[in-house]
Amino acid sequence: MLVKFFNDESGATAIEYGILAALISVAIITIVGTLGTNLTAVFTDVSDALDLG
């Protein structure tokens, strides 16, 4: 029974999936943050152009 416990890798697999999900979340947050900043700049430019016209 002890040998079976030490050979069980299901916990390691769950941890690997958790780490992968965390890395994907960080990537998404980074991309959305950058995209949001760029979109704000674009809408500001459009708004300024409409005010001048």
Structure description:
- This is Flp/Fap pilin component.
- The chain crosses the membrane at residues 20-43.
- InterPro entries: Flp_Fap.
- The protein has 53 residues and is mainly alpha-helical.
- The protein has one domain (1-52).
- The chain is 92% helix and 0% strand.
- The protein has helices at 2-7, 10-52.
- It is rod-shaped and about 80 Å long.
- The model has no long low-confidence stretch (mean pLDDT 87).
Question: Which key features would you list for this structure?
Answer:
mainly alpha; Flp_Fap; transmembrane; Flp/Fap pilin component; 92% helix; transmembrane helix; 2 helices; 53 residues
Summarize the SSE layout with pairings.
Blueprint: H1 2-7, H2 10-52
Question: How many separate domains make up the residues?
Answer: 1
What is the 3D shape? Answer: rod-shaped
Major sheet: none
Low-pLDDT stretches are none
What is the residue-averaged pLDDT? 87
Taking the alpha carbons of the first and last residues, their distance comes to 79 Å
Radius of gyration: 23 Å
In which range does the helix fraction lie? Answer: over 70%
Return the structural class. mainly alpha
The percent range for strand residues is under 5%
Protein name: Flp/Fap pilin component
Pfam family, one: Flp_Fap
Keywords: Membrane, Transmembrane, Transmembrane helix
In short:
This is Flp/Fap pilin component. This protein is an all-alpha fold. 92% of the residues lie in helices and 0% in strands.
